[in-house]
Structures are given as structure tokens and as C-alpha cells.
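User: I'm preparing a small set of examples for a lab meeting where we compare how different chains pack in three dimensions. I only have the primary sequence for this one, and I'd like the structure in C-alpha cell form so I can line it up with the others. Please keep the answer compact; I'll paste it straight into my notes.
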Amino acid sequence: MKNQHFILAKVLAFAVCSCGLLSADEESSLKTKANEETDFAARIKYHLTIHDVEGAIQEAKEALRRFPESIAVRKAYLKALCEKGKEAEALMLCKQLVDLSQNEQENRHLLETLAWAALQKGQHSPQLFVRLNALLGSALTNDARAIPALIKELKSSNAILRSLALKLAGHMGDEPLRKEIFRLIKEEKVWYVRLTAIETAGQLKMREARPLLEKIVASDRKLDEEKALSISTLASLYETISRNDLLKLIQSKRAGLRQLACEIVVQLELKKLVDDLLPLLADPSPDVRIACLSALGLLEIQRKEQTAPLCKDPVPNVAISAGWLHLRQGDAAGGDVLVEFMEGASPASRRLAAAAIAASGRNGTEIAKERLRLSTDPFVRLNLALGLIGLREDLVLSCLEIARELNKEPVTKLHSSEPNDLWMWDSTSHPVFRVLAPSRVRHIEHIANYPVIVDRLVRLDLLGLLSMLQYPKALEAVKNFLKSGQAQLVGSAAGTLIQELEEEGVEALKFLLKDPEEEVQLEAALILAIWGKEGSGIDLLMKAYPEAKRERKIQILEALGHSGSPAAVPFLLEVLGEPFQVLRIVAASALIQCLYH
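Assistant: Understood. Below is the C-alpha cell output for the 597-residue chain.
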């Protein structure tokens, strides 16, 4: 009421001046006060411009003493408090200003100023977990103000922060970020950070990184995983290549560069130059022989006389690749090779052969149907089932097989030594096939329980596939997964389920919002919110927040941010008053996402 009276008084004063009812001295006095108020607000902004925060706060306090009801001064004071990191005072003042303002755009600006204050304060925290969340929260806003934070952490002494900053930089690609990515490819010592830098360079199409990547491919001292990633990244950076340059790669003394030649031919679909690759079928490196066979298969080039001898190659992966090529091209002898390996003693070869049959198209259908019923290896059966589903063949049995393996008692221990406890998608055994296999994923310091998270994501992929195919018990399987707590472990990654389920899955999860078990409701609401599917679970999430544990609160706030729902803005503003900094940071990021979704 007091504020309304003040505003009304100013309006009346202006009207009186306009009508000439004030004396010249009175009119001059009013203009002087208005100018003085404007000058105070300007001086506060000037202090902030030169990063003199203390000076800005002192100036603001003096201004408020003189003009306690001035909205312009209070807005400038809000910015000073945010710069100083006084979040509680800034929150209180921001709420007052939002109530006073009738301008939606102005309200957005005030809330955004407050949210960025929480994020920027978190970026300077001594606690790693706080800095990680501040960095992630800043990047999720898709705002240019996140770039300084990313550059800062790309130069960090902490490998975890460097790795996360690299992943996030791949979604922005500004020139200062590209320079830091290039530097890390060249100088980084930690293996998983190097891999992330190489992957990010490919994502951003950084052609300036080609000389560095070529050195990695040619080196004998680099990890196989690093060389393989460099090869695929390099191939994606070529827009064209002359025959002479391709021949230089094919004739190189470095196996990695010969592999690269095969990748480039596939990437650019250079069918006219395929015959130049044929000498590589006799290459001393098995990886090069596999790359050459893969190129012939992907480009649908038949050279059976040259490739047939490789069906008897002493290296199993080479022979399996040759068998896949021949079966794909209608040669039954290729199928015989793969069946022989599926019956062999080596589990890895059995699984790779099954994946090869799954990737061989219609020519592998009958073999897949037969071996699905006969094999005693569950991973052979799973890979064959996936292949048949891709061809829409024998769907009932294939879905039943996947559901049976999923319904086995889930593993609860996080550091199990049993080889078949955890699953993964293996893309390292072969450049063409993705193999469902027992996990060989290593623990990495920047993601807690990483092998278990990978396993849960694989299971989510399969659940989504069953739901998409409208398998009768898929909804119950999804519900069991949610009830088991497995989805909690993967946090926002649980959105993979929706990504696979599409509209059928969305409807299934919306149905689970009404489930009598609250935990099932909450999990369904989280996944729906994470992928911005409807606003149906927003109220449920906000209602569950006060009684949730801290880890669950973080998930709820992240989900609200992903939902982008304007309905969550008042709730998130209140969360900015939480005593825990991590919660304030996640809420700040979510608030910005909801303001500008």
C-alpha cells in the first residue's frame, strides 16, 4: 500500500507540474530530485561496470536512504547484491520488485539476474560437487554468459571439471572454446579427458585439429580406444579427398592411417576408388583387414574372389567380418562361418557372430530364427532377437526372449565381479556391429557408479523397444523398473526411455501418474518432465519436493528445468531460498530454462 501511495503521489506531482499549478521553485525542486535519483542509479551501474562492487553497494545504500521507494535504485541495488553474492538479501529484494512490476519482460529480467547470481557464485566454490553443478547449470541455460565458466574449467587443474566442460563445450562451439579444445587434444595427459576432447572436436567439425589427430592415429604409443576414436573423427572431417592423397594413406607404414583410408572411402561414398582398397585385404594388421571388409559391405561392393579366403582367417574377428560380408551378399557360405563361431567356445566370438547375423539383413533371417531357439548363450539369443525385431520377424518370440532376460533379478551390488551381472552396448569390437554384451565398462572418477549407470541405460533401451512394439507386459515391466529404484541411479539419463518409447511410451507413463504407489508416480513424472512431455507431472514433482532426500530434490529440480514449464517459476523462486548451495544452483538453472523455454 505504501508503494502504491508513493507511485500515486509521483503521478499527481507530475500532473500538477503539467497543469502549471506549482510555483517555479517547487517545479525546479521536483526536477532536481528526479535527476538526483537517476544519477544515483547511474553511479551504481558505473561502479559495477568497473567491478567495484563495494563502491556500488555503498552508493546504493546512500541512494536508498535518500530515495527509499525508488524502483530504479532498488533494481541497481539488486544487481550489486547479486555481484557481491548476497543471495538471501537479493532474493528478498527481487521478490519485492517482481510484485511491484507489471511488466512481464521486466520480471523475467529480474529473475534471470537473481538466478545468474547463484550460478556465478557456485562457479567459484571450493567444493567440487558445487562447481560441477554450477558449470552444468550454466551450460543448460544456452546463454553466452556460460562461455567464461566453460573456459575457466577447461583450464582447471581438476580432470573431472575439464571433462565435463569439454562435453558441454561441444554444444556451443564458440571460437574461444575451440581454441581450448585444440589445446587439450595437444596437451591433455588424462586418458578419458583426451578421449572427450577428440570426441568434441568431431562434434564441432574442427578441421584445424586434423594434423593433431593424424599424429595420434600414426602413433604406436596411444591407446587403441584413442586411435579408433581419432580415426572416426578424422574421417568425419574430410569433405573430399584426391585419389593421390587416398593412396598415400593406403600405402602408409602406419596401420592407423591405412584404417583411416577405409573410413574415408565409406564416409565420402567413394565407390569408384574401392578397388584401391583391395590390397588392404592382405594387410598384416587385422584391424585394417576388418576395416576394408566393412567398407566393402557398407558400400555394397562384391569382390568375392578376394574376400572369400578371409572367411578362414586365423583372427576370429576378421573371419566373422568376412562371413558377415558374404552372408549379406547372399552367399550361404558366409552364414556357415557365422554359425560355426556361434557354436564355438569363445563367448566374445559367439556374441560378435550373433551381432553379425543380426546386421546381415534378410539373408540372415532363417539362421537367426533357428539359433534363437537353439543357443544356450543368453547374449547370443538377445543379439539375434534384436536383429529379428529390426526386420519385424518372429516378434513374439524375440520380445519374449528380451523380456525374460530383463525380468531376471536385477543386480543391486555396485562393484560386482560376476562377468554377466552388468550389460553394455559394445561398439569397440567391430566398426559396424553394436553388440549387446557383458559389461567391460571401467569405473571413472567423474561419474559415480558409471558401469551400473551404463547397464541401467541398456535396460531402459530394451524396455523402450518392448513398449514401442506394444509387448503385452511392457507396461508392467516399465513399472517394475521404476519401482525397483534402478531409474533413480541414472537420473536425467532415464529420459532414454521416452526417447525410445515415443508417443506410446508417453501415454504409458502418463497412465502411471495415477498409479496407487507414490514412488511409481514420482518416477513416471520425473521421466515425463525430463523430456518435456506434457505438464501432467509438474504438480506431483513440486508436491514431492519438500519431503524428498537431497539427491532426489536435485533430480526433481533438473526435471522441472527440462520441462520448461512456466508453472514451475514461482516454486523455483522459493527454492532459491534453500540453505543448501547445490539446490540453489540447480534451481537457478531450472528457473532460467523455464523463463526462456
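A couple of notes for your slides: The first strand starts at residue 423 and ends at 426. Residues 1-22, 24-30, 410-420, 489-502 have pLDDT under 50 and may be disordered.

User: Perfect, thanks.
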